[in-house]
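Readers outside the structure-tokenisation community will struggle with the description of the input data as it stands. I therefore recommend that a typical entry be quoted early in the introduction. An entry of this sort, consisting of the sequence and the corresponding backbone structure tokens, reads as follows:
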Amino acid sequence: MAENNKWGVIFCPRSGALRPHAKWEKVEKCLKEKGIDYDHVQSENSSSVERLVRMMVTNGYKTLVIVGGDSALNEAANCLMQTPKEVREGIALGVIPNGLMNDFAHFWGIKDNDIEACVDMLLNKRVRPIDLGCIRYTNEKNEKCHRYFLNCLSIGLVASVIKKRRMASGPFGWRKLAFIPSSLLMIFQRLEYKMKLRIDTEIIDRKVMTVCIGNAQGYGFTPSAVPYNGLLDVSVVHHPEMTQLIEGLYLLYSGKILNHRSVHPYRTKEVMVEKAERALVGVDGRIMKTPVGAFKVSVEQEVLNFIIPS
């Protein structure tokens, strides 16, 4: 069993990177210089993070650090939510960003390349209970399933952008270059989906370009969302004209997307998606198998301890 002050560190190499272990070499050097007592394991991919977190929880680690991106954090959060509440309440989850976008880390002001600042933050161990979003759905085997998310759930075009972005990210993993084909997709493909949503007492039954349900900033589509108010921010984007699309890209990158005339914002505890024909669903930067039939998205308040900057 691990000592109470010993960290369990999971290193997730960034997919497609020319030197996938370069980040870990810097992290390891910093940990040793600061005299931190830790054990570390490396994941084969983000999907194996859940198994490694379960192993560390079983072995008694109270501080779990993910050196990875949004998808790896998502796996860790979902694993922790499977543990008994009394065990989970004694565990703090932290991150050293090592993904393509690292949106949840950026929400807290955690920088990608300042490893020393990240380690100092983890040492300081300011812990905040945070909310998680949750999608409850039925899969193709008619099984009742659920999955949690820290950042956002997207339906429609944004999910397609996530998929294209992952395909477009070359060996250098350049963030801005990865967004170029994504932006072009938004301008020229102009996909729309027949959806029926129930948000509080309002029913939306029409063609929609995309829906983003944010527990945090949601890739810029829910810029006012915060993971500690017990609410989800929802942006429903109707089909804009071409000139409005270009304007929308500018507002998206400047953090003002809610000012766009085709974006309809809501704040709620629950969203019922009764229909979303042919639309992909993305959770924290990863495409999930599209739920069969209707599904519900809700928020669970202050269920996970997260280490944040002072």
Observations:
- The first strand starts at residue 7 and ends at 11.
- The first helix runs from residue 22 to 33.
